Amino acid sequence: MNVLVVGSGGREHALAWKIAKSPRVEKVFCAPGNAGSGRFGGNVPLAASDHAGLIDFARRERVGLTVIGPDDALAAGIVDDFRAAGLRAFGPEAAAARLESSKAFAKDFMRRHGIPTADYREFTDSAEARAYCATASYPLVVKADGLALGKGVVIAQDIAEACEAIHQSMEAAVFGDAGRRVVIEEFLVGTECSIHALIDGSSHLLFPDARDHKQAFDGNVGPNTGGMGTVSPSGRLDDALLERVRTEVLDRFVAGAKADGLDFRGMLFPGLMLTADGPKVLEFNCRWGDPETQVLVRRLESDVVDLLEATIDGTLASCAPTWSGETAVCVILASGGYPGSYQKGLPITGIDRAEARDGVVVFHAGTTGSPDGLVTNGGRVLGVTALGADVAAARAAAYAAADEIHFANAQRRNDIGVAP
Ligand code: AMP
Ligand code: GLY
């Protein structure tokens, strides 16, 4: 079978790498992909938004399975379009992907189905939102309803900050239509981690947990990024907490989606806050995390294609994947200046030396080929992954490999896996 992966980041290279290991797979195409993702069958110069072009390609190349990476493609209904064309695609339909693309929709879903989450109010009128902020206690969390590239959440320390966030989102429209509606919620205290679970409409299959490091700099300071590195397991979820996640989040999610007539077949990736009252859901992502995927595929020993197909076919209950007991670490090498502005087109060297090391795989994110060889082409450039017996060993291996790789102004965190 041929497989098509849609997207161009490190997540997509990691998925293509793992899919290519399946004995059932001939070629893995990636659209539009990056310099790493093209090694398993080739990159296709089509954007994730070009549904008709991608459907044509899938038909022409006899693609048996298309795997969607990015959230905006899912929200735009790419899976609906593939299914309408009689093609198999992995990911939720647009109506279900709204659980990521509208925070108000997700909060309402959680409230109605008893999924633990922060208390909240939803506003479409900025004057009403401001009036509410005058009575609330602080800190208070103000969230743009829609997709805002990870920038739509403000933790307001006082009423002035809350009102400024409301103004920016609802009146100045810095997130466009995505911020016309806001969710204002209670500030939760605890530690964060994220889980991934495949959902096939009637059951769920929980993956090992992972932890992302979202701030740009060591010690969790600096601006929020897409993610500067991951570790799996996170060391934060014990068996008792995992059981609560299964029953209070995943069981209720599956039952709730069914009750609401949402056809959710795909990856559910909830961000969790582990509070004194137990795990609470901060947000739902309806896709694989980036760079969570990079560490999860390193630990997955079973054939990922079997899992993707079982999710589409509703047969997850018969799957029992095996996972490496080792720890996986992914260190992101980013362009200097990221997540702000940065230069592109800088030559990259040393990936071969990095990958010659035991247990190391380097996933590309923002890279492209050029007449001068491999060059940078995005904010997050590479994800250097390593397996080790424990966090210390995996970290040592990942950082030793990262030390082999060079491009001008490279930026990374040195505390992935051990940050507070
Ligand atoms: P979200 O996009 O909803 O995951 O929010 C982004 C980040 O804001 C999260 O990773 C948390 O660090 C923080 N955050 C969001 N909601 C809350 C909350 N209710 N209480 C405390 N922190 C939050
Ligand atoms: N690593 C965070 C995300 O994929 O949303």
Which labels suit this protein?
420 residues; alpha+beta; Rossmann fold; Dna Ligase, domain 1; D-amino Acid Aminotransferase, Chain A, domain 1; 4 domains; five-stranded antiparallel sheet; 13 helices; 23 strands; binds adenosine monophosphate; binds glycine
What can you see in these coordinates?
This protein is 31% helix and 27% strand. The strands form 6 sheets. Strands 3-2-1-4-5 form a 5-stranded parallel beta sheet, sandwiched between helices. Strands 10, 11, 12, 17 and 18 form a 5-stranded antiparallel beta sheet that branches. The protein has 420 residues and is α+β, with helices and mostly antiparallel strands. The chain has 4 domains: 2-93, Rossmann fold; 125-180, Dna Ligase, domain 1 (2-Layer Sandwich), CATH 3.30.1490.20; 191-318, ATP-grasp fold, B domain (D-amino Acid Aminotransferase, Chain A, domain 1), CATH 3.30.470.20; 327-402, Glycinamide Ribonucleotide Synthetase, Chain A, domain 4, CATH 3.90.600. The termini are far apart. It is built from 13 helices and 23 strands. The protein has helices spanning 10-20, 51-60, 71-75, 78-84, 94-101, 103-113, 126-135, 159-171, 239-260, 292-299, 304-313, 351-355, 391-402, and strands at 2-7, 28-32, 41-43, 63-68, 89-90, 120-123, 140-144, 153-156, 182-186, 191-194, 197-200, 204-206, 211-212, 215-217, 221-224, 229-232, 265-275, 278-285, 327-334, 360-364, 367-370, 373-376, 380-388. Bound molecules: adenosine monophosphate (AMP) and glycine (GLY). Glycine (GLY) is lined by residues 212, 227, 285, 289-290, 292. The site of glycine has 6 residues, from loops.
